[in-house]
């Protein structure tokens, strides 16, 4: 009887140990799938793995809202019930998470201005992808010295897009450029907006905007037909057909976010982890497009 009791005790202790080794549940919410945000997500996961939080220690539940803010709210509510930490990629997803999750840590990624997005709480931190708009204006001046009119299409319902459009416009006007802006509400309006805007401009500037990123093949196609170059805000735009970019790496934004989440999982308190901005920008030039526009030596 005594041996049986000891055996049961050992089994119970083993079960307790197994319970203690339960995997960490990480919820990743993303507003829409496109190459820029996908690169951010890849950076997050790679950083977690390199810091020791691989599939042996964590379960990652990734959900995509397919561009719908209401769906992003539902995802946030679901993660509030079952996730230990939440990583929110894009401004709408972070806003949905901050609206619905009050007591669990939220790490935002790929948000331009967290202050104006209204997401900063005691349980929220992350990494901003704020664009170096002055460098991007200087890139236009350097590569396309004959340019006078710059065009921008942006989604009026995206807070980050409004902020970046305003910041870029001010920087460009300070350099003497005329900026022509076309606001749209959704993806379906992109084609007609470009048809209206392209005949009136010399170059199109594409900022960090989920609607822009989701329709980039269309933007490149329309600009190619109109023989108008594109200057972009992130490396993936140059990869897809923009002439050049002076901007940050989406992957690096995600990687820094993953590092930040790993710091929390290793014991740091979230209130002691202030949000960060990716400071380093890099220039990328699409050589094929550069040749088309007669640009050499870069």
TrEMBL record:
It comes from the Bacteria. This is ABC transporter substrate-binding protein. Gene3D superfamilies: 3.40.50.2300. Pfam families: ABC_sub_bind (PF04392). It comes from Fusobacterium ulcerans 12-1B. CDD domains: PBP1_ABC_unchar_transporter (cd06325).
């Amino acid at each position: 009887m005594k041996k049986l009791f000891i055996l049961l005790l050992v089994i119970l202790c083993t079960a307790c140990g197994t319970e203690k080794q339960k995997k960490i549940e990480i919820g990743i919410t993303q507003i829409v799938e496109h190459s820029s945000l996908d690169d951010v997500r890849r950076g997050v996961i790679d950083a977690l793995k390199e810091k020791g939080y691989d599939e042996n220690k964590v379960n990652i539940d990734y959900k995509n809202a397919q561009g719908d803010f209401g769906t992003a709210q539902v995802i946030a509510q679901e993660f509030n019930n079952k996730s230990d930490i939440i990583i929110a990629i894009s401004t709408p997803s972070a806003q949905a998470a901050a609206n619905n999750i009050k007591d669990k840590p939220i790490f935002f990624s790929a948000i331009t201005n967290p202050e104006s997005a209204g997401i900063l709480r005691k349980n929220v931190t992350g990494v901003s992808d704020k664009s170096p708009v002055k460098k991007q204006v200087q890139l236009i001046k350097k590569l396309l010295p004959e340019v006078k009119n710059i065009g921008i299409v942006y989604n009026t319902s995206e807070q980050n897009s409004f902020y970046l459009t305003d910041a870029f416009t001010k920087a460009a006007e300070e350099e003497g450029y005329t900026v022509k802006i076309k606001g749209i509400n959704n993806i379906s309006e992109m084609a007609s907006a470009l048809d209206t805007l392209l005949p009136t401009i010399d170059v199109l500037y594409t900022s960090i905007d989920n609607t822009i990123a989701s329709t980039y093949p269309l933007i490149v196609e329309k600009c190619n037909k109109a023989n108008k170059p594109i200057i972009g805000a992130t490396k993936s735009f140059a990869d897809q057909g923009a002439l050049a970019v002076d901007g940050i790496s989406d992957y690096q934004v995600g990687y820094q976010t993953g590092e930040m989440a790993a710091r929390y999982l290793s014991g740091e308190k979230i209130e002691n982890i202030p949000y960060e901005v990716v400071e380093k920008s890099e220039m990328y030039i699409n050589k094929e497009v550069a040749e088309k526009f007669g640009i050499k030596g870069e």
